[in-house]
Amino acid sequence: MSVETPDRARAHSARSNMLLPGLLAWVSTVGAPAFERGVGTGARVFACAALVAMVAGPFLTGPRPWVARAVGIHATVVLCLATWLSLGANIGVQHLEPVRAAIGAVAWVLFAFGWGATRAPGTPEDDPRAIPGAPLPARSHLPLLATPIFAIGLLGAALTSFAAWRVARPSHALLSHAAAVVSAIALVTSAAKIAVDRQDYKPLTPATLRLGAAVRPLSVLAIALIVRFAWMLVE
Predict the structure, then answer these.
(1) Looking at per-residue confidence, does 159 or 63 come out higher?
(2) Which of 62, 51, 69 is nearest to 115 (CA)?
(3) Considering only CA atoms, which of 40, 71, 49 is closest in space to residue 58?
(4) Which of 60, 129, 178, 233 is geometrically suited to a Cys-Cys bond with 68, CB 3.0 to 4.6 A?
(5) Does residue 212 register a pLDDT over 70?
(6) Domain ranges, residue 37
């Protein structure tokens, strides 16, 4: 009986982190709609090819990891996109199952993390090629109230995401969730920038003031046009 070495165990664990979320994502978002009744042969061929590429990719990892990534990531994603395009109206909002869609979204995120390269155990200072020296001091400290400002932005992002779940109509719910995700990202990014950059504040010039005065009405106009265009799509 062969004894499994630590390197082989780590390799099996890495392959499992790539395969298991990928298989779950394929089943919930690609395989299930592709093998429903009335679906054409082309969509099923693309779905099967995506499954083959997804399974083959982790086993190609070795001296040429770029080949494994090309097959396991790029070819898989391209074939999944080809499957969805071939399905056409069969993957419309009216056919969307919320539970299966949520499981598929989480599985795709875990699939991406599984393919991410993890750093080896230990610290960079343990490397024999590291140059010894005194620890580098921090360049600066966070300004006052940086943490509360970021916490307020994070709370606003959470409330925005929660508000999207209050939309009951399926035709508008998808747009609401997309807008909530964009708004949450913008809130967190803006809060972090405001919290960190306050110590480098500089007085505004007249040109900057004029540009800032025009930003608000232009933003309102852009939002109104986007909302009107989205309303035309869901009517």
Answers:
(1) 159
(2) 69
(3) 71
(4) 60
(5) no
(6) 8-115
The total domain count for the chain is: 2
Q: In this structure, is residue 211 part of a structural domain?
A: yes
Q: For residues 215 and 136, what is the distance between their CA atoms, to the nearest angstrom?
A: 41
Are residues 16 and 86 located together in one domain of the fold? yes
Instruction: Give the predicted TM-score (pTM) of the model.
Output: 0.52
Which of the four pLDDT bands, split at 50, 70 and 90, describes residue 194? confident
Same domain, yes or no: 35 and 104: yes
**How far is it, in rounded angstroms, from Cα 221 to Cα 227?**
10
Residue 211 burial (CB < 10 Å; 0-12/13-18/19+)?
exposed
pLDDT over 70 percentage in the chain? 68
- Residue written as token pair 């939309």: 167
Same domain, 101 and 23: yes
